[in-house]
Each structure stands twice: as structure tokens, then as C-alpha cells.
Amino acid sequence: MLKARIIVLLSGLVLPYAARLPRGSEWLHQYTDQAPMAWLFLGACNAVAWSAILAVSFLYRRPSSLLAPSLPGFGFLAWAHYSLDLAADAQAAIALIFIPVFALAPILVGAAIGYLIDRRAGSQGVA
């Protein structure tokens, strides 16, 4: 489970930048051509989402159950960071605060599904 948690942590840190790559280097530079404090700000805001996935992981017995909250949560984050154009509006950067908060809903739904999958797999292994 420790390896799965480390993968979640690293994925959460890299995801905002990796999601920008398909649109080209100009989109990536919107996130990377900033002061170091901006990088920390983006990492801290995004920590809301991946730390929720880490917190849920303590309810699971199997690392495979962690896919249920990770896929919808990281999927939403990837889509949101991919589609956010910081150059479009002066207030667009405010979305960086709300994106991880909005990702909590798919993470919660996935966490409940993962919990049920984890318990069902555990009860079948005992029988």
C-alpha cells in the first residue's frame, strides 16, 4: 500500500503540468514560467485533491481499490488543467483554487465505490 500511496503523491504533483503537454509548450509555459512561489501555490492547491485520495487509502486493504477514487479524481483534475487558459482572462487563475475543490466530488464517489469493492474482495477471500 505504501507504493500505491507514493504513486498517488507523485501523480498528484506532476498531473497539472502533464495535463498541459498535449496542447503544446505555450500551454505548459503558462504554468511553468512563474516565480517559485507560484509553483508552490499550485502544488498546495492541488494537494487538496491528492491528499483526499491518500486519506481514503487508509480505509482500503488492497492497493487496487485505490483506482476507484484516483481515476475519476485525477481524470477531473487532468481535464480541468488541460482546458484552463490562464491567458484568457485576468481572473482565470482563481480557477486554480477551485479545481481541486471541485475534484473532491468525483473522489468521494470513487472512494465509496472503492470501499465497496475492497470489502467485497475481502469477504470473498475469507469464504
UniProtKB/TrEMBL annotation:
TM annotation in the entry: 36-59, 66-84, 90-117
Keyword Membrane: yes
Superkingdom field: Bacteria
This protein's UniProt keywords: Membrane, Transmembrane, Transmembrane helix
Protein name: Membrane protein
Organism expressing this protein natively: Marilutibacter maris
Taxonomic lineage: Bacteria, Pseudomonadati, Pseudomonadota, Gammaproteobacteria, Lysobacterales
